[in-house]
Amino acid sequence: MARTVTTNRKLINTLIAWTIGLLIFFPILWTILTSFKTEAQAISDPPVFLFFDWTLENYAVVQERSNYMRFLWNSIIIAGGSTVLGLIIAVPAAWSMAFVPSKRTKDILLWMLSTKMLPAVGVLYPIYLIFIQLGILDTRAGLVIVLMLINLPIIVWMLYTYFKEIPGEILEAARMDGASLKDEILYVLTPMAVPGIASTLLLNFILAWNEAFWTLNLTAAKAAPLTAFIASYSSPEGLFYAKLSAASTMAIAPILVLGWFSQKQLVRGLTFGAVK
Amino acid sequence: MATQQSRSAARLMMAPAVILLLGWMLVPLIMTLWFSFRVYLPMRGGDQGWAGLDNYIRFVSSSSFWPSIQVTLIIVGGVLAITIVFGIMLALLLDQPMWGQGIVRILVIAPFFVMPTVSALVWKNIFMDPVNGLFAHLWKFFGATPVEWLSQASLQSIIMIVSWQWLPFATLILLTAVQSLDSEQMEAAEMDGAPVHKRFWFLTLPHLGRAITIVVLIQTIFLLSIFAEIFVTTGGAFGTRTLTYLIFQRVLESQNVGLGSAGGVYAIILANIVAIFLMRIVGKNLDK
Asked: Which residues in chain B are contacts of A240 at CB distance < 8 A?
């Protein structure tokens, strides 16, 4: 039986929860608001909250000064490319582990996870050197490869946990009816796996978009994505709060929207199926 | 049942992922190990032969090694304590009936999706700047002297920024665990007259044990290697140089690859100690 809750209690819960929620969200809200202020209003004391002259000027300035679109484009290519490439490699692997498990499947899965634990800084120079040798330093292709590799274990794991939930009997039935391996994957498995693949895609796109070690260390001018674009604001000249806010808002807005869609998958994806 | 044919097909399908990850793990790792035993200064003569264990000894005996370990542990410990305590409280709160639960959830989760460079810069300038920051305005409003956050309370500030980023993660996982709590058991305890704090201590907390362990392990692995938050805010100054940052400086700033690689090996060992515990839990879960 569901417990009855008095309206009073619910009201108090609501008040507390909304207050805390808004407090946690406040830095993001404030950044978005500041991006619409003039530089003078952005630092005015006392601060202005809503009643200021809303302006889009900062967005124009940021776009003009640093060619925001180029960084955005780099971010999209790098995050999108690494995710799609990762999926192409991970789907067959996860499929075979989920449906044709062997004694070693578990060990392979755990080993894949263990590669994720390798601290990036420990292998920074070797990667740097390999990149120079291959001529892919500061290229989007280089970053696509690295981000694909660091997210590959997560992609395999997420897909594996989703595939595991698809009943194997359906595949057997298809096989009985004479479906080839290719048909089985293409026409039976894929339609059932689409939701899982979609959430994997979403979460890994977000992770790649926000990755800030390799993107900062392996790019300079050409391939720099939004993480590096924002970091370039760390040595400011003059008044720049409103412009910084505009740049920040542009960098996080797309991902905030995607993130809201993927909140359910976040738990599964980042705990490797250990919490569901 | 799997046939011989489907078994070999399965192996073939796994091969690309396995080979790629094997290469990704082994090649740089072997190179790092190799460099760690060499005198290797790319800008000052390149590879100058064997160093034996010199790099390992020098890295540990340098005056910045122990402080960096200490800073790393303080940041990891501080962030863990904050995110878990507040995460539990938030998870319990979000589990209560209320209006607009979905929206509150979204508000709480949002910081996790903010790029680390963005959150570091926004906190550093718009909030923590001693002259124009929002905190400075607030302090002045109450007649207090504004704090120079990132130089006077640098560690606390970084812990705060990182905790803000990771609180959503802890909350979300703990909330998932709270929601799977057996409500009948809870009601029985309530009817038997168990007070709120006892119900929390003897029912809720043990139930959350597993989730807490997982949050601790996963966050530790990510927190051991936080980079952007320090790179952007203090650049390792004011006593905020973590082990990761120290290695980064040795390799890229002072261009001493041999020494940095030895540090890298230490970092890999440290991360592996944590990883072993995480793998055990995840591995156990696979059997179920």
From this structure: 125
Shared domain for A71 and A178, answered yes or no, is yes
Same domain, A19 and A128: no
Contact B67, B241 (CB under 8 A): yes
Is the entire prediction scored with pTM above 0.95?
no
Contact A259 B17 (CB under 8 A): no
Cα B182 to its chain centre, rounded Å, is 31
Q: Using the beta-carbon criterion (under 8 Å), do A234 and B278 form an inter-chain contact? A: no
Asked if B229 contacts A234 with a C-beta cutoff of 8 angstroms, the reply is: no
Q: Tell me how far apart the alpha carbons of residues B69 and B75 are, in angstroms, rounded to a whole number.
A: 10
B-chain residues near A46 (CB < 8 A): 137, 141
| A2: in domain | no
Count of structural domains, chain A: 2
The DSSP bridge partners found for residue B38 are: B50
If you measure CA to CA, which chain B residue comes closest to A210? B115
A chain contacts of residue B278, beta-carbon cutoff 8 Å: 117
Per the CB < 8 Å rule, is A43 touching B119?
no
Q: Check residue A189 and report its DSSP letter.
A: I
Same domain, yes or no: A43 and A99 = no
CATH, range B65-240: 1.10.3720.10
Tens-digit pLDDT string for chain A (276 aa): 445 668 888 888 899 999 999 999 999 999 999 889 887 777 777 777 777 778 888 888 888 777 788 888 999 999 999 999 999 999 989 988 888 888 888 888 888 888 887 888 888 888 988 998 898 888 899 999 999 999 898 899 888 888 888 887 777 788 788 878 778 777 877 788 888 888 888 888 988 998 888 888 888 878 888 888 888 877 666 678 888 888 889 888 888 888 877 777 776 667 666 666
Across the interface, do B98 and A3 touch by the CB < 8 Å criterion? no
Residue A36: domain span: 7-58
Beta carbons of A77 and A208 less than 8 angstroms apart = no
Same domain, A222 and A175: yes
Q: What are phi and psi of B223, to 5 degrees?
A: -70, -30
